[in-house]
Amino acid sequence: MTEEIQTVEPLQGRERLYVAQALFKVMGDYVSTKGDGLRSECDQELLAMYESDGIKSLDAKVAGKKVGTYGVTVAKEKTTTGLRTTDLDALTEWACDHDLMRAEPDYKRIEAYFAETGEVPDGCEAYTETVPEHAKGTVLRIDPQKVAEALGASLPSAVAGMLTGEVE
Description:
By secondary structure, the protein is an alpha+beta fold. The protein has six helices and five strands.
């Protein structure tokens, strides 16, 4: 049996809004990074590949054609040096002697003083902390026109299947 190709008049005014809203509602579930939808599932796989193999980026392909990129956002290694209070009484006395007190030690000014002079206040110890490079999340960049071209004639049925839940 041959399927008859139906021609549909272009959508007008509010019809376009209604179809766009339906697409937005359904597609939002697919692409949301919250919950356990398709995006979260794919993000977990990509982050696992980053952790195990260092893979930071993939070509996003539909029907074998590149339509965008899918990558891991990475926080660079960061080293900070600062102060930890080990003896509040000693720090308070030191802060008074150095005019760095309010009703309590002025930690911002004390940190600035330490950064400028290198002097470790009484009641404190200096520390250096390194947070290694790590994944912060993912980023997905897709060119809709390239997806349309990659799907070609199957685009309408692919979209209809996603709207009706017939395609996972």
